[in-house]
Amino acid sequence: MKLKLWQFEYSFDKEDAKIAVPIILYLFASNVYDQKIILPFISFYYFTYFFGPQMILKMSGLYEDNKMKCPQCRSKKIILRGYNTYRSDEHHAFYLCTNCKTTALLTNGGLTAI
Ligand SMILES: [Zn+2]
User: Fold this and answer.
1) Which of 36, 54, 74, 78 could form a disulfide with 95 if both were Cys (CB 3.0 to 4.6 A apart)?
2) Are 75 and 103 in contact (CB under 8 A)?
């Protein structure tokens, strides 16, 4: 949707509507309801709109970091030793903990000591 006022022309798209529509609704709702009730909801909406995707990425990164710890001493100082088979024909990544010298196998749930 394009808005044109005299010389000013602005294209209003879906991403702009996600920001502008809650402000307009807030202005209408502030006449009906108490602002102490509405303000936390609108601030929660904008907080999740602007910072929600970044927070989700950070949280998923923390989960991935927890998977790559030594199963014996929980140290993050591990190195990749190589790929080899273990109880099947499938190749797995073998890691060595530099702290306690434990060999670990990378599985879907993280590192497992063997
Ligand atoms: Zn270790």
Assistant:
1) 78
2) no
